[in-house]
Amino acid sequence: MGSEIYGYAGPNRAYAAAKVNAPGIALMVIGGIGILWHLLMLGLNLLGTGLSMPGMMGGEQDAAQRMAQAMGGAFGIVLGVIGIGVSALVLFGGMKMRTLSGYGLALAAAILALIPGLTCHCCCFGLPGLPFGVWALVVLLDNNVKASFAG
Questions:
Q1: How many domains does the chain have?
Q2: Would you state the pLDDT for residue 124?
Q3: Contact, 41 vs 50, CB < 8 A?
């Protein structure tokens, strides 16, 4: 005996599947872009170049150049590996969301996508993940969608 939700008994998996499809794809795209970005940055750091191009700008370094140099080297490599892991979790969480399995993982992916700069720094410092993370959270907190994950 299911409880009455939106005028029908029990969870409606077709409704939930349609509702989670688009935000799940958005999380997958954000995670995929983040993986590519962090792989690129990891490769550049392993080559010793990073984002910093010394000698390109004459004179003293400004704060942005100092920050770019600080993100290079061993620290940049560690950040790249962590970024790949976080982006992979967002990608995998989006995949789980679309199949209505792994509610906790889908919820974690949506929350991680909310944090600017965590998955992808290349697009306005990760801000595109913010609206997609909010969208995914709103959908995941829908009672019918929650019940469909459990069922």
A1: 1
A2: 45
A3: yes
